[in-house]
Amino acid sequence: TETKSSAASDVYKRQDQTAALQAFSGGDYNYRLEFSAERWHTAYDFPAAKDGRVTLLDTAHGRAQGMRGFAFNTRRDIFADPRVREALIHAFDFEWVNRNYLYGQYNRIDSFFGNSAMAASGLPEGRELEILERFRDRLPPTIFTQPNTLPTTDGSGNIRRNLREAGRILEAAGWVVRDGKRVEAASGRPLAFEILLRSATDERIALSFAENLSRLGVDAAVRTVDSPQYTARTDTYDFDMVIHRWSVSLSPGAEQTYYWGSESADINGTRNYPSIKDPVVDALAAMIADAVDREALEAATRALDRVLLAGHYVVPLYFTDVDHIAYWGDLGYADHTPLYGHISTVDAWWSNE
Q1: Kind and range of the H or E element at 171?
Q2: Mean pLDDT calculated for residue range 282-301
Q3: pLDDT tens, 226-248?
Q4: Which of 12, 61, 196, 256 is least surrounded, with the fewest CB atoms within 10 Å of its CB?
């Protein structure tokens, strides 16, 4: 399911959306789902939208949101230390990106199972805590004592406080600044890597991240390649960092082993881009696949979520819990919004004409 849905999404995103929107504004088709916050706020000002022939609908949904973020490839030595990964997470300024690029319409992703009851929150308790207790000696103590939180800013672009904390963590991990460059104290090798992209729409997000990293003395180059080259490189894990989204449903299962399992880390073409090899993660993913009731499923999923977050394998990006729908004519749909949103039931819409 993840592979098919991602492939469909990638095909959609690669289309010329400017031409598609022009066709819609001219009435060539009568239902459109808009994925771009920028287009939604700037491009739907054509005559039919102004005079009411086209309706613009914002509707909330309850679809689980998988993790989307900059994935560290821990096969690379520079990312092997979780402290380095934790430090670099401080350099991403979501609030500034949301204000300047996303029209304030997005939420920060803080879970691998966001927008659902399976997302870890607060401190572990109940059945989730019972599960985690089995692995206490192999988990960071903070999992039991501190809720997972992401660095925040005021959105002004001034992130000196976050960068100071990042620098402190990097120095504790053995990475110091020499001649303005972040280098490993013992060897002198620079902390430098490439962010590999296949979509030009992600470039400005990656470049803003790279700019903040440069203030830490970290050299992050952004490179966008065509889809075949991107696929060839990611299938063989020939990258330092990529942006990826791991799709999830409200009933996760065996795909979690495919995403995060130790065995999948060494098999080309899986989605274990960070190369997670953790027996605890393996055990929790197996619990999800073997869960016999909803309570067991949610507890195991929250436990896995908490362990993955504690590993700092991804710089989390953002998501929206609102669908943007534009349509021509007098269409009708159920007053009650389905859990998966109106886009999941478009075949149940009707024409009042």
Answers
A1: helix 160-172
A2: 97
A3: 999 999 999 999 999 999 999 99
A4: 12
> Please, which residues bridge with residue 15 across strands?
none
325-343 residue pLDDT tens: 999 998 888 888 888 888 7
Q: Are 334 and 74 in contact (CB under 8 A)?
A: no
**Hey, what are 107's tokens?**
């939420």
Q: Distance between CA 108 and CA 145 in Å, rounded?
A: 22
Structure tokens, 336: 């009650």
Question: How is residue 185 annotated by DSSP?
Answer: T
Residue 46 in contact with residue 25, Cβ under 8 Å?
A: yes
Give which of 336, 349, 326 is closest to 53, Cα–Cα.
Answer: 326
User: CB-based burial of residue 10 (10 Å sphere; 0-12 exposed, 13-18 middle, 19+ buried)?
Assistant: middle
Of 68, 74, 67, 69, give the one whose Cα is nearest residue 240: 74
Greater confidence (4 vs 353) lies with: 353
pTM over 0.90: no
- As a whole number of angstroms, the distance between CA 91 and CA 239 comes to 20
Stretch (H or E) spanning 143: helix 142-145
Pair 135, 339: CB distance under 8 Å: no
pLDDT value at position 307?
Answer: 98
Q: What percent of the chain has pLDDT over 90?
A: 83
> Is residue 15 scored above 70 in pLDDT?
no
Cα(22)–Cα(73) distance, rounded to whole angstroms?
40
d(CA 56, CA 45): 11
In the predicted structure, residue 281 carries a pLDDT above the cut 70: yes
For residue 154, what are the contacts with CB-CB under 8 A and spacing of at least 6? 95
Separation of alpha carbons 279 and 307, rounded Å: 11
Query: Per DSSP, what are the bridge partners of residue 65?
Result: 114
272 neighbors 261 (Cβ within 8 angstroms): yes
